[in-house]
Design goal:
Layout lengths: L11 H12 L6 E8 L9 E2 L3 H9 L5 H8 L7 H8 L6 E4 L5 E2 L6 E6 H6 L1 H25 L3 E4 L8 H13 L4 E2 L2 H7 L9 H5 L4 H11 L5 E3 L5 H18 L6 E4 L4 H14 L6 E4 L5 H9 L6 E4 L1 H4 L9 E10 L2 E4 L16 E8 L5 E8 L9 E4 L7 E4 L2 E5 L2 E5 L2 E2 L6 H12 L4 H4 L9 E3 L1 H14 L1
Parallel strand pairs: 6-7, 6-11, 8-9, 9-10, 10-11, 15-21
Antiparallel strand pairs: 1-5, 1-12, 2-4, 3-5, 3-19, 12-13, 14-15, 14-18, 16-17, 19-20
Helix pairs in contact: 2-6, 3-4, 6-7, 6-13, 10-11, 11-12
């Protein structure tokens, strides 16, 4: 997966547009595209950006192989041979700016800005959105879950239900960025240095004459990783009593039973009763792990029922984004080269949320120095000075609603990633990304972070950006 040739991981219409630009000799004209999304997933109040590392690796490896070129030459469009030759020498030589992975982001603000020839910018659209949309979706779902689990251990268990192997591996990475503590996927552990966690399956229990024998042979093999699955037959009558027996045997060896795992049934009741049994046996150190189609809503209700669960295995509903299977990320042209400079462009629509905001923009987070919390995000042109005092922030839809902010720090969230095709950004370690995410989420008010009916976060335009948008709406209406 990681080393596969992904140059043709693009849509046919991208190649056709590249060909049309080439035929009209406009393929070297520069353009600016911005990638963003229009609505937070999962009815959430915020989103967690992820996918940048894979985008970087993809751009670095962009090159049409001979097999790629032969395949393109066979297409029904009958591309000119000279076009195929143009692709043979292709490499990305443009600029890319992006927010950092783990950043808290919001609708209609640029997460990635691409400044390149139209030829280059069109080719990378599909893959860029694919990587950004999926990993951002899963990171956001994982963050919602960790908002509920708090300091509990949370392990990603979703590989077998993911939509193919790439989703399993990169989804595990996205979950870890947003606060999960480990994954069951060994390849994700190897590639990204994520702690790997595992217990055993019901088949292990079934493949022995008795449940006790299955437990005994498992801990004999792995005495330092003794976690027992206790719901194969009867959790309270068989599973936990047998686990207690095994725990007593381990104590004679100077070792301890680490945990029991529940994978079915009434998790609240079983964990409460199981906790009593373990404590009465002098095993208050033994944790209770739960799995079984869990997500943030199920976990929230389990905690409301005082479930005695210390550790969570999250699979299907995380890795598939089950209640919101896609992030609606888009990649829109905001400026084009004209007469030696950039001309802002706009897309209009009867659907107001689909009207684009023209011009190459930078994204600022406005931090109140008194509270260390964000007053909102602010989109401005690159040449604008944003640290003036005070700063006027107004609703882009209802501009009569505004406020002046003083004693603030404006943080530019967009970092240069590629300059003239050269990678200028040091990719952080995955643990550095996790730490960054934890730091950034502290700057957001709890009302925006809550799971139900979150407060809308302000994403404002500078007066220049807003006026440019209004002018182009009038011009093209």
């Amino acid at each position: 997966m990681m080393n596969n040739d992904l140059t043709l991981h693009t849509d046919k219409y991208q190649i056709n547009m590249m060909y049309a630009y080439w035929k009209n000799n406009t393929h070297k004209k520069r353009a600016v595209f911005e990638a963003y999304f229009r609505k937070n997933p999962f009815k959430n109040g915020y989103t967690v950006f992820a996918g940048l590392e894979r985008i970087v690796k993809y751009v670095n490896q962009l090159k049409f192989s001979e097999d790629d070129l032969a395949y393109l030459a066979m297409q029904e469009e009958n591309y000119d041979k000279e076009f195929i030759e143009e692709l043979r020498d292709f490499s990305f030589k443009g600029d890319i700016y992006a927010v950092q992975e783990g950043e808290i982001v919001f609708p209609n603000e640029p997460l990635i800005r691409v400044e390149a020839t139209i030829f280059e910018a069109q080719l990378i659209e599909t893959a860029l959105l694919n990587f950004m949309n999926y990993q951002t979706l899963i990171a956001t779902k994982a963050s919602r879950i960790t908002q509920v689990t708090g300091e509990d251990e949370v392990v990603e268990f979703g590989s077998r239900r993911a939509q193919e192997s790439s989703a399993a591996v990169w989804g595990a990475r996205a979950a870890y960025i947003a606060g999960f503590t480990g994954t069951s996927n060994m390849l994700a552990g190897k590639w990204f240095h994520i702690p790997t966690k595992g217990t055993n399956a019901h088949s292990w229990i079934q493949n022995h004459d008795t449940e006790y024998e299955a437990f005994e042979q498992f801990v004999r093999a792995l005495p330092n990783q003794a976690i027992l699955l206790v719901d194969t037959y009867d959790t309270l009558q068989s599973g936990i009593p047998n686990a207690i027996k095994i725990g007593k045997e381990l104590e004679k060896q100077g070792k301890q039973l680490k945990a029991v795992r529940l994978d079915s049934g009434d998790l609240a009741r079983l964990s409460i009763e199981g906790r009593k049994m373990l404590d009465e046996a002098g095993m208050d150190h033994v944790k209770i792990m739960a799995s079984s189609d869990l997500d943030e809503e199920v976990i929230l209700h389990l905690k409301m029922q005082n479930a005695q669960i210390d550790s969570w295995g999250i699979g299907t509903k995380l890795i598939t984004g089950s209640d919101c299977p896609a992030l609606g990320g888009v990649y829109k042209l905001v400026a084009r080269e004209k007469e030696g400079g950039y001309e802002p462009v706009i897309k209009l629509s009867e659907d107001v949320v689909k009207i684009t905001t023209p011009g190459a923009k930078t994204l600022y987070r406005i931090i109140n120095n008194d509270t260390n919390k964000s007053e909102g995000d602010y989109l401005a042109f690159e040449d604008e000075v944003v640290d003036d005092q005070p700063l006027k922030m107004f609703d882009p839809i209802f501009p009569h609603k505004f406020k002046f902010v003083d004693n603030y720090t404006a943080i530019n969230l967009m970092k240069p990633i590629f300059q003239n095709g050269e990678l200028v950004y040091d990719l952080p370690s995955i643990d550095d990304i996790r730490t960054y995410h934890k730091q950034q989420i502290k700057a957001i008010w709890p009302e925006t972070l809550r799971l139900l009916n979150p407060q809308t976060y302000f994403v404002d335009l500078s007066e220049r950006v807003w006026q440019m948008k209004q002018d182009l709406i009038v011009k093209h209406s």
